[in-house]
Design goal:
Helix content: 25-40%
CATH superfamily of the largest domain: Enolpyruvate transferase domain
Shape: globular
Domain Enolpyruvate transferase: 12-427
CATH class of the largest domain: Alpha Beta
Bound molecules: shikimate-3-phosphate, phosphoenolpyruvate
Number of strands: 26
Pathway: Metabolic intermediate biosynthesis; chorismate biosynthesis; chorismate from D-erythrose 4-phosphate and phosphoenolpyruvate: step 6/7
Distance between the termini: 14 Å
Number of domains: 2
Oligomer: single chain
Keywords: Amino-acid biosynthesis, Aromatic amino acid biosynthesis, Cytoplasm, Transferase
Protein name: 3-phosphoshikimate 1-carboxyvinyltransferase
GO biological process, one term: aromatic amino acid family biosynthetic process
Radius of gyration: 21 Å
Structural class: alpha/beta
CATH architecture of the largest domain: Alpha-beta prism
């Protein structure tokens, strides 16, 4: 089958059904990396088989781990208790999480590796991770432009640092902690606001002690170097960032009721659900349980009359990847939705503020762009545009959801990028009744 050059979403009849989101992307990267750093076997169940994570699987294999797919979503990683010298370049594809965490992990070992990625990843800032790693004693050589991939990381013999983050970033925190695992002394990372804590939780599951101390709205995480990880079983729940798309469609397509089962409900990831509730969304969670060290539940979204809100800036870290789909639901809401304090959106797979502003405007939605945010004035959504997605999976999925309830069809380019985080997105949405089809 040839990949279509575009996908088009058309106004759909009521969506209904139960489905499951693919495995959590953040946890999937971490399970592979910690499995490779550990001694012994790690059995992963529910791994996201998206392009970003598959790139990380190939990377840890290049660093010497055994990696084997034993069934759908089931992967076995045989760790060597550390990274070995790779004999090829480490291509992380489109994955910011993959490259930043792997750079941190590799810096702790006496290896030298060149990291690279696709055109989108090559535009993203890497000094935010490189700076602390150099401070710990690693050597980083920019092979092209400074602060950008490709970069060569030469590691080993690190010393612990105390790092205070200016923005809450789980990727930076995780890179430092993974390097700190093999550094001399106790590494600490302080965050002004709490970012997702999957690395800390998973390090504990692999046998490491991780300290956490509350500091204002944030916390200080500490890790003693020299601790050894032991392979373990990791169960990965559904990704709330992916579940957001079918749930958003349920909220905006009249008459709909959509349930996504087994969604991870870690409170550091559920800012979008909180915001939707404040907007008046009929969003219910049933079958709450703890599984694999995380809270999980079945989330149901029914079509709702939404109202605009001001999203608290302090919530940004808990929903940073969800602002594009929030903006789509805001387009159908009554009144303004104000999203500020989200300058980080500009350094994701694309400049997500400017891409959402451009896409929504092309679809006839009134949007104001600001340096660190944007404001969507909801109401009628005429649609009738082809949206440029700049290699960004979330920009593509967001506009397809918009097209399901807009007056006229909405098309997106580069649809193959959706497999970065959500392989099977189109089939899953069609299974709920969404009218999404390939187009040229
Ligand atoms: O640690 C992670 O798994 C992630 C952290 C976030 O990035 P930042 O740490 O840059 O905020 C998020 O945008 C990304 O999709 C996944
Ligand atoms: C920002 C994202 O991922 P990453 O930083 O891993 O590329 C995302 O998935 O929205």
């Amino acid at each position: 089958m040839t990949t279509p050059s575009h996908l088009t979403a058309r106004r759909s009849r009521a969506l209904s059904g139960r489905t499951r989101a693919p495995g959590d992307k953040s946890m999937s990267h971490r399970a592979l990396i910690l499995g490779a750093m550990a001694s012994g076997t790690t059995e992963i169940d529910g791994l996201l088989e998206g392009d970003d994570v598959l790139a990380t699987a190939r990377a840890v294999q290049a660093f010497g781990a055994g990696v084997e797919r034993t069934g759908p979503g089931r992967w076995r990683v045989t760790g060597q208790g550390g990274f070995r010298q790779p004999d090829s370049l480490i291509d992380c594809g489109n994955a910011g999480t993959g490259v930043r965490l792997l750079m941190g992990a590799a810096a702790g070992y006496p290896v030298s590796a060149v990291f690279d990625g696709d055109a989108s990843l090559r535009k993203r800032p890497m000094k935010r991770v490189a700076g602390p790693l150099v401070e710990m004693g690693a050597r980083l050589d920019w092979l092209g432009e400074e602060d950008r991939l490709p970069v060569q990381v030469s590691g080993g013999a690190l010393a612990a640092i105390d790092h205070t983050q200016s923005v809450a970033s789980a990727q930076i925190k995780s890179a430092i902690l993974l390097a700190g695992l093999n550094a001399d002394g106790v590494t600490t990372v302080a965050e002004p606001e709490r970012s997702r804590d999957h690395t800390e939780r998973m390090l504990r599951a692999f046998g490491a002690e991780v300290g956490v101390e509350a500091v204002g709205e944030g916390w200080r995480v500490s890790l003693r170097g020299g601790q050894r990880l032991t392979g373990t079983a990791v169960w990965i729940p559904g990704d709330p960032s992916s579940a957001a798309f079918p749930l958003a469609a349920g909220l905006v397509v009249p008459g709909s009721s959509v349930t996504v089962e087994g969604v991870m409900l870690n409170p550091l990831r559920t800012g979008l659900f909180e915001t939707w509730r404040e907007m008046g969304a009929d969003l219910t969670i049933s079958n709450r349980r703890t599984a694999g060290g995380e809270e999980v539940g079945d989330v149901t979204a029914r079509h709702s009359e939404l109202s605009g809100v001001v999203v608290p800036e302090a919530r940004a870290a808990s929903m940073i990847d969800e602002y594009p789909i929030l903006a789509v639901t805001a387009a159908f809401a009554e009144g303004e939705t104000v999203m500020r304090g989200v300058g980080e959106m500009r350094v994701k797979e694309s400049d997500r503020i400017s891409l959402m502003v451009a896409g929504l405007r092309a679809c006839g939605v009134d949007v104001a762009e600001e340096a660190e945010g944007f404001v969507v004035a909801g109401g009628a959504v005429p649609g009738g545009a082809t949206v440029h997605t700049a290699h960004d999976h979330r920009i593509a999925m967001s506009h397809l959801v918009l097209g399901l309830a807009a007056e006229r069809p909405v098309a997106v380019d580069e649809p193959d990028m959706i497999a970065t985080s959500f392989p099977g997105f189109v089939e899953l949405m069609r299974g709920l009744g969404a009218d999404i089809a390939a187009s040229t």
